[in-house]
Automatic annotation (TrEMBL):
InterPro entries assigned to the protein according to its UniProt record, in alphabetical order: CRAL-TRIO_dom, CRAL-TRIO_dom_sf, CRAL/TRIO_N_dom, CRAL/TRIO_N_dom_sf, GOLD_dom, GOLD_dom_sf, PATL, PATL1-6_C_GOLD
Domain CRAL-TRIO: 162-335
Membrane topology of the entry: Peripheral membrane protein
Full protein name: Patellin-6
GO BP annotations listed: cell division; cellular response to auxin stimulus; protein localization involved in auxin polar transport
Keywords recorded for this protein, A-Z: Cell cycle, Cell division, Cytoplasm, Lipid-binding, Membrane, Transport
Localisation: Cytoplasm; Membrane
Length: 449
């Protein structure tokens, strides 16, 4: 059965030497062709009758931070259908093929696709290089030939199968996990672990270690590219989510430069959108200063999410069951080993509101397992089982407790001894802030005969 949800709303009175990661602003538009995201409709945090904070005179920093959150119109991902190209673009595509053929001294392929095969997959790749150079055929050919040479020297075609020995970084520093709402594979990047000097020295201590790390980072990207369709109308780019929390900017300057250079030169048009999360306040201020110098097209690729706003931002683009638990989602390592998981139900918890999720129709002997998360938590949560039989006592499965912002999704189960319903409660009456939330559950009937 679908759970019934009951809401009880209570309003409360209103209580009343930094460096930016420079490489972020060096991203070329050619690296990041964006698609339009699907956004959730967010509700007002309180009913209109609730008290409003006093109007305060905005200072300079506040104005800059607000400017940094403004969204420019999203640019739709470019078409790879030849029939949709302009006449000049069709001509450029054919010219690139002819010039590649005349200058070729052997088979040219990328990601298992022969570039001169004449099929639509080859056209997708060639169009990426053309768009990276604004359809200037000579520049596109030069970029393509350099990339082919680099892939051969780097042995990029076989890199996915290599064991580079970075087990400690898998699922932690850079990893592919899940898809966005439109089907793009998502790559997460988090370099905060390198604030530990011992870890930093172990990974970046000398040139050889740095080269090995760069090879591993390319391997992660190649794994993501293997998930792409390379087909007109298909999924032809990935999403990058970069966590700026605790990132040692100065120490990673050299590695960042190398990664950026490799990706820009050899993976054009492979990133649909870059989402920056746990962004410090000063980043937003500096971004607002830099943004006038960026093109509208480039700015549309960036999503800036301040600290404490991670889940709300990611839910706009990625379903909660695909967002890692450390970022306010329900996805845990190893989840897929238990088979396909039930999609999550999303809801919002307004400021001054308590939400009770009632899961009814639980039979005697059945086991109910649930996951629930609220972005940023900082509210009270509890779970209780309410028997159907008159006179039976309600059972406190999880007593009321304050859940801190740093806690991950709740995962629990309960075996009922009698028929009844489970009630999951989240109490946000002590806050004015609206929060995104998600839950899912599964009920397994008793196997006893």
């Amino acid at each position: 059965r679908r759970p019934k949800s009951s809401l009880s709303i209570h309003t409360v009175p209103f209580l009343s030497k930094v460096q930016i990661p420079f490489w972020i602003f060096q991203l070329k538009p050619s690296l990041m062709e964006a698609s339009s995201p699907l956004s959730l409709q967010l509700q007002d945090p309180l009913p209109e009758s609730s008290p409003k904070p006093h109007n305060l005179k905005k200072n300079f920093v506040t104005s800059l931070m607000e400017a940094a959150t403004l969204r420019t119109p999203s640019f739709k991902e470019d078409t790879y259908l030849v029939t949709h190209l302009k006449p000049s673009e069709k001509k450029a595509l054919q010219d690139l093929k002819d010039r590649l053929l005349s200058s070729s001294d052997g088979p040219n392929s990328m990601w298992g696709i022969q570039l001169l095969s004449g099929d639509e997959k080859a056209d997708v790749i060639l169009l990426k290089f053309l768009r990276a150079r604004d359809f200037r055929v000579s520049d596109s050919l030069h970029m393509l030939q350099k990339c082919l040479s680099w892939r051969k020297d780097f042995e990029a075609d076989s890199i996915v199968e290599e064991d580079l020995g970075f087990k400690e970084l898998e699922g932690l520093v850079a990893y592919m996990q899940g898809y966005d709402r439109e089907g793009h594979p998502v790559c997460y990047n988090a370099y905060g672990v390198f604030k530990d000097k011992e870890m930093y020295e172990r990974i970046f201590g000398d040139d050889e270690k740095l080269k090995k790390f760069l090879r591993w980072r390319v391997q992660v990207l190649e794994k993501g590219i293997k998930l792409l369709h390379f087909k007109p109308g298909g999924i032809n780019s990935i999403i990058q989510v970069t966590d700026l929390k605790d990132m040692p900017k100065r120490e990673l300057r050299v590695a960042s430069n190398h990664i950026l250079s490799l990706f820009q030169d050899n993976y054009p048009e492979m990133v649909a959108r870059k989402i920056f999360i746990n962004v410090p306040w000063y980043f937003s201020v500096l971004y607002s200063m830099f943004s006038p110098f960026l093109t509208q097209r480039t700015k549309s690729k960036f999503v800036i999410s301040k600290e404490g706003n991670v889940a709300e931002t990611l839910y706009k683009y990625i379903r909660p069951e695909d967002v890692p638990v450390q970022y306010g989602g329900l996805s845990r390592p190893g989840d897929s080993q238990n088979g396909p998981l039930k999609p999550a139900s999303e809801f919002t918890v307004k400021g001054g509101e308590k939400v009770n999720i009632q899961i009814e129709g639980i039979e005697a002997g059945a086991t109910i397992t649930w996951d629930i998360v609220v972005g940023g938590w900082d509210l009270e949560y509890s779970a209780e089982f309410v028997p159907n039989a008159e006179g039976s006592y309600t059972i406190a499965v999880e007593k009321v407790r304050k859940v801190t912002p740093s806690e991950e999704a709740v995962h629990n189960s309960y075996k009922s001894k009698e028929a009844g319903k489970m009630v999951l409660s989240v109490d946000n009456t002590a806050s004015r802030k609206r929060k995104v939330a998600a839950y899912r559950y599964i009920v397994r009937k008793s196997t006893a005969i």
